[in-house]
């Protein structure tokens, strides 16, 4: 098999162009950032009952919010944190 030098050069040029296009497309893809839900954890200081709710603007740790459904004591916010959203698979 005799390869002509022109054939080798054209093959290298085409391969280089294809690789440059591929790398350009891969670099333009933006990585997906995970989405988060902010949650608030309330705890009753008397009976220890805990409940997790969605965060509302203005809440802070130590804030008294709502009443305990078990003993009717005011509940305190003990934690505010973020939970990563998970994508629910579609049922087909």
Write the layout of secondary structure elements.
Layout: H1 5-28, E1 36-43, E2 50-54, E3 64-67, E4 74-84
Antiparallel strand pairs: 1-2, 1-4, 3-4
Provide the descriptors you would attach to this structure in a database record.
rod-shaped; 92 residues; 4-stranded antiparallel beta sheet; alpha+beta; 4 strands; 60s Ribosomal Protein L30, Chain: A
Explain the overall architecture.
- This protein is an alpha+beta fold.
- The protein has a domain of 49 residues: 60s Ribosomal Protein L30, Chain: A (2-Layer Sandwich).
- It is 26% helix and 30% strand.
- The protein has one helix and four strands; from the N terminus they run αββββ.
- The chain has a four-stranded antiparallel sheet with strand order 2-1-4-3, with no helix packed on it.
- β3 and β4 form a beta hairpin.
- The two termini are 54 Å apart.
- The mean pLDDT is 88.
